[in-house]
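Dear Dr. H.,

I hope your travels went smoothly. While you were away I took the liberty of generating a structure for the chain from your last submission, since the lab meeting agenda had it listed for discussion. I wanted you to have the full record in hand beforehand rather than looking at slides cold. The sequence, exactly as received, is reproduced here:
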Amino acid sequence: MRKIFQLAAVTFAAAAIVSCNGGNTESGATAGEDSLETHVLHATDVDPLSPDSVISILKEGNAAFVNHKEHKRDAVAQLKESASDGQHPLAIVLSCIDARVPVEMIFDKGVGDIFVTRVAGNVVSPDVLGSMEYACEHSGSKVVVVMGHKNCGAVHSACEGVKAGNMTQMLAKIQPAIAECTKDNADAEGAELENAVVYANVRNMMKAVRSNSTILSELEEEGKIKVVGAVFDLENGVVEFLQ
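The corresponding predicted structure, in token form, is as follows:
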């Protein structure tokens, strides 16, 4: 009986967040075509959710973005509300710095909904890991998303062997993915190679998260979080979650 009540609570919480973050009638505003959402996530919204529920919410948000069904928000009102209660984001997303990848927008999320950390090539570093640990261990985020994107300039530069200043060390982290993708085809090149490297690099960075953070690996083993990979397509706006 206890499991039934727990399942019901999780289902209700997920439905409430989808309603607030992706539905046509937003919480905290009068229903109508011009209504603006003012609600922000609280611990009571996020705590009951499973990692799989949060992944579903992110997928639904991306579908809303792709289909031009994003909901409207009063960001100033959301900021005011969040200032008094802190932040309780659903997930943390590691993304490339590419200006064509507006992370909150492509998941149809607003103030307080997700953490975002960005670095060229979406590569992992101690600072990135510390940010992920803060999100999950301290703030209760349920999912770590390592998200690359097609037509990535950092990946292109790594494939071209660019070495310049601090970029050298950063791009070196992408080289293992290039080696994987050229192992059986040394002549691979161009867009086909680079997009293959994007996927390989995401998977490598997921491994780096798990192998270099005891906190995150233990949280995942306990079922409290999930580390997942994703690739954003600049041409159609679709986020592909990797298996």
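Two observations you may find useful: Confidence is low (pLDDT under 50) at residues 1-13, 22-33. The radius of gyration is 19 Å.

With kind regards,
E. W.
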